[in-house]
């Protein structure tokens, strides 16, 4: 599925991923390919996303995510990143 991550300053990430874990306001949740459409408010915390060879983790200060037809759009506030292998 396609993941796009935006901050107020820039487009942070655009690429294909297999799974994404978000810090929802009622607890974390994961999105996989063919997930039901949704819009959710996100809490401060870590977003983890991976493809078949790499995994990334970023910290967000909150935001909103939309999942629609295997496209995931994350509008994030305040972001810092560390790549994990």
Protein described:
With 85 residues, the protein is an all-beta fold. The protein has a single domain (2-84), classed as ATP Synthase, domain 1 (Sandwich), CATH 2.60.15.10. It has no helices and ten strands. It has a five-stranded mixed β-sheet, with no helix packed on it. A hairpin with a 2-residue loop joins strand 3 (19-24) and strand 4 (27-32). The two termini are 20 Å apart. The relative contact order is 0.29.
Rounded to the nearest angstrom, the distance between the terminal CA atoms is 20 Å
Compute the number of strand runs. Answer: 10
Look at the structure and give the CATH class: Mainly Beta
- CATH H-level superfamily: F0F1 ATP synthase delta/epsilon subunit, N-terminal
In which range does the helix fraction lie? under 10%
Count of DSSP helices?
0
SSE succession = EEEEEEEEEE
How is the CATH topology named?
Answer: ATP Synthase, domain 1
The major pleated sheet works out as:
5 strands, mixed
- Strand % is over 45%
How much is the average pLDDT? 92
Number of domains: 1
Q: What is the SS-derived class?
A: mainly beta
Side by side, the strands of the main sheet go 2-1-9-8-5
| CATH level-two architecture | Sandwich
Global Rg: 12 Å
Shape: globular
Q: Which consecutive residue ranges, at least 5 long each, have pLDDT under 50? A: none
């Amino acid at each position: 599925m396609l993941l796009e991550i935006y901050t107020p300053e820039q487009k942070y990430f655009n690429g294909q991923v297999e799974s994404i874990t978000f810090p929802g306001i009622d607890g974390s949740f994961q999105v996989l390919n063919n997930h039901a459409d949704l819009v959710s408010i996100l809490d401060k915390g870590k977003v983890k996303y991976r493809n078949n060879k790499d995994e990334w983790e970023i910290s967000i200060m909150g935001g909103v995510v939309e999942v629609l037809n295997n496209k995931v759009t994350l509008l994030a506030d305040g972001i810092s990143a560390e790549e994990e292998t």
